[in-house]
Specification:
Length: 129
Amino acid sequence: MPDTKNNLTRELHIRLKPADFNSIQKRFASSTCRKLSEFARDVLLNKPIVIKQRNQSLDDFMTEMIKLRNELNKIGNNFNQSVKKLYTLQQIGEFKTWLILNENDKKILMEKMNEIKLKINQFSDAWLQ
């Protein structure tokens, strides 16, 4: 026979004004509860509720880092394709052309690396205040 002591067998139905429901919904959304029913049980039984807190500067940092990571991935892919092309070259003239074309990619990579350093410095300065 199943253990009925820990099963959720009793129901409680309540009616709310739309504004009250929206207020509860907002509090639920800012909590770590996965379901509204879990949140409601915790509130009704006076159990502690863990509220998520957002660190805006960390969010900004992560947004910038994700953009830069994506750009670096693209640059890395271009570099890999370029090196594969290098291995297929047969004559010195082809090597010279490859070197000239890849000088621009090198410049772009260095600019992105400097941009990353600048962003990290900006965020570290903000965090250290």
